[in-house]
Amino acid sequence: MGKKSKAFGLLSAAVLTFGLAGCGSDGGSGDGSGLDVGIVLPTKDEPRWVQDETRFQDALSDSDYTTEILFSQGSSAKEKENVETLISKGMDVLIIAPHDGTAAGSAVEAARDEGITVISYDRLITDTEAVDYYVTFDSVAVGEAQGQYLIDQAEGSGIPLYLYAGAASDNNAFLFFEGAWKVLQPKIADGTFVIANSGEAEALKDKAELSRDELGSILGQVTTNWDPSEAKNKAETHLTSAGADMKGDVSILAPNDGTARSIADVFASDGAITDYTITGQDAEKASIQYIIDGKQSMTVFKDVRTLVEDAMGMAVDVLDGNTPETTATYDNNSIEVDAKQTDVIVVDQENVQQELIDSGYYEASEFEGLE
Predict the structure, then answer these.
(1) Is 8 within the bounds of a domain?
(2) What domain range includes position 267?
(3) Which end of the chain is more exposed for a tag (fewer CB within 10 A), N or C?
(4) 3-state class (DSSP) for residue 266
(5) Are residues 322 and 287 both part of a single domain?
């Protein structure tokens, strides 16, 4: 049910020693030449990325390097403009979570042309050689944890399985689905689950490993584009067309918390759905409340504090002239990118207190119904 995340501590000794400055700081940079680290995040419209901004600010508040955080608001054009703005300020290291992994290529190529080290953050930038490092959660493990949770909760056979995925423009969406398919496929093939909403997935149900194109064909049918409204509309369409044999007790692979809540609300409102198990990801506050209330089954907790620690530690290594530690490589369709992976953990009603409250990630006062 997912790998245990390593315990979060203070920033690494390197970060504590060399530090990084508060967001938008006007103080002097580490080498006196300008902006040290530029950070570009995809949008302020998803709680996940606002959370990341806060964690970066917390990590960088007492240090000597200068940083600036900019948001792309779901626009690749704005993303490129943000990178150009940071380049003009003399940035040495770029940490970027791309809105669109392929479209971001031209932006990071401009940075690379200026001798800037590019760290792809959480989402992999694809189809370009202009990526030096990748800091990520183990995205395949996220999908595996989601799929395994559905398997662990399954009773009997012939259980209707509704599949949903993230945006086809996000490489992580492929990795999440790949991981989920890896564990779910044997249980689809043996009849434990019956695919309810994807003809493409049904046609591939006997295939354990899918090519990128085959994954793309399924994602094309079940993508939510990470948009809760689109997820809601798709779920409504699927339930409207589903026969009685595809209702009752069902299992739902939802790619993240925002889409999970929307999909769960739709399924909960259908009188022919007697029970549902639904996955999530990101441990958003609203979904933690849903889990406490029994409206969402689980979420994959990705401790942003640890991801930020890894990203900033890597940036400091670069600024200090050292080679960052990496633990894996990822193929971005152009090169093998050196990466550092951060582990994930499954959270449900049984361990929400231990993993999210006792660990200090959230305050108990932020939720109702905690025992």
Answers:
(1) no
(2) 139-301+350-354
(3) C
(4) helix
(5) no
Q: What is the mean pLDDT of residues 261-284?
A: 97
Residue 163 lies in a domain: yes
Q: Please, are residues 268 and 236 in contact by the beta-carbon 8 Å criterion?
A: no
The SS3 of residue 292 is: helix
CATH number at residue 312: 3.40.50.2300
CA separation for the pair 68, 267 (Å, rounded): 42
Q: Give a yes or no: residue 366 inside a domain.
A: no
Count of domains for the chain: 2
Helix, strand, coil share of the chain (percent; to 5): 40, 20, 40
Say if residue 292 is in the same domain as residue 149.
Answer: yes
84 phi and psi, to 5 degrees? -65, -40
Q: Give 61-97 pLDDT, tens digit per residue.
A: 777 888 999 999 999 999 999 999 999 999 999 999 9
Helix boundaries (H) for the chain: 13-18, 47-60, 76-88, 105-113, 139-153, 171-189, 199-203, 212-222, 228-241, 257-268, 285-293, 304-319, 352
Token pair 């970060």 is at which residue? 15
Regarding whether 273 and 253 lie in a shared domain, the answer is yes
pTM for this one?
0.79
Residue range 280-308: mean pLDDT, rounded: 96
Strands 37-41 and 93-96: parallel
Report the residue count for the chain. Answer: 371
Quick one: 313 and 178 in the same domain?
Answer: no
Whether 204 and 116 map to the same domain: the answer is: no
Candidates 232, 225, 281; CA nearest to 253 is 281
From CA 44, how far away is CA 66, in angstroms rounded?
A: 22
Q: Across residues 275-296, what is the average pLDDT? A: 97
Per-residue pLDDT, 33: 60
Number of Cβ atoms within 10 Å of the Cβ of 225: 18
Nearest to 91 by CA among 79, 82, 99: 82
**Residue 362 neighbours by CB distance under 10 Å:** 15
Q: Is residue 361 domain-resident?
A: no
